[in-house]
Write a structure and sequence with these properties.
Helix 3 (51-60) packs parallel to helix 6 (149-163) and helix 11 packs parallel to helix 12. It is globular, with a radius of gyration of 19 Å. The chain has a single domain (24-87, 145-344), classed as Phosphatidylinositol (PI) phosphodiesterase (TIM Barrel, Alpha-Beta Barrel). The chain is 36% helix and 13% strand. Strands 1, 2, 3, 4 and 11 form a 5-stranded mixed sheet that branches. It starts with a helix and ends with a helix. It has 14 helices and 11 strands. The protein has helices at residues 2-21, 24-30, 51-60, 91-94, 112-116, 149-163, 176-181, 186-196, 213-221, 246-249, 252-259, 286-293, 315-325, 336-344, and strands at residues 35-38, 64-71, 77-79, 168-173, 208-210, 229-233, 264-267, 273-276, 282-284, 297-298, 330-333. The longest helix has 20 residues, at 2-21. GO terms for molecular function: glycerophosphodiester phosphodiesterase activity.
Amino acid sequence: MRMKSSCTAILAAIFAILPLSIAPALAQDSTLERVVIAHRGASGYLPEHTLPAKALAYGMGADFIEQDVVMSKDGVPVVLHDIHIDTTTDVAKKFPDRKREDGRYYAIDFTLAELKSLNVTERFKADSGDQVYPNRFPGEYAIFKIPTFEEEIMLIRGLNKSTGRDVGIYPEIKDPAWHKAEGQDVTAAVIKVMEHWGYGSRESNSFVQSFDWSETKRIRNELNYQGKLVQLLGENKWGAPVGTDYDYLKTDDGVAEMATVVDGIGPWLPQVIEGLSADGKAIITPTLIAAQRAQLKVHPYTIRADQLPKWAGDMDIALKAIFDDAGIDGVFTDFPDQVVQYLAVRPQ
């Protein structure tokens, strides 16, 4: 009961400051063409993928709010960045005997009720227990819970109703091949929820993203999903899904092939901006040129005020390169307020 009241108090405090942070109508209008995507919510300020982090991102004026989706043991889509839950929750304390042979705890091994019993914290390192970002929300304040995908949609749609705005959702289907091997179809589950809540057409204010090119094609061609799709781009050395060759997808031919299926790409930022030239302008890549030529939306990940690219001395330098020099359509960020503020004072 105390935990529930703590979370309620946090949400109430967030809603109380919304009018002071940014006027909702202005926030929506100021980034109409160049969108701000709240990466795991306002995760620079509150623990990632918690409902308070999403509410704060909404109040800061984000155009889209991201959801990473994995499955529970009983087949419920829940919002977590990883298939593992041991670096963002207290699962090791509450269920010490439930780890697998590799020492990790997996969301899919726990029912929704069990996942709901866990407390979510700021992300920490598995080996040392130290926070990944030490100057963010204190890790010892474990007062948050894991939301289901539908709970998050209800939060955003509820706020859209009460504020008159139209903030979109931006789910990522996490590790679909791994889920399939575990006996669950996370992709079909996500698409079912999307269509149930009215996010099944190109006109709906949403994108569905995946790193798995084979699965992206399945979404369009087999599941016949008609909403907007984004193909995420990683690096082969990170461990690409079977049937996905990021080196190829970054070429002109690869971009042309993606354009037959998706509405946009989600590249790692260095895949579209290599750095700055001697005169301080963004050095853009052939992948970006090809994507813009193909009229694909380009939404790179991730801009963090506390972990900037080496070539950017501050957020303004990074955002100028992204929006003003490279003409990129939108960006994933842990600090949506800073990107909203940057775009608000610049002409479209």
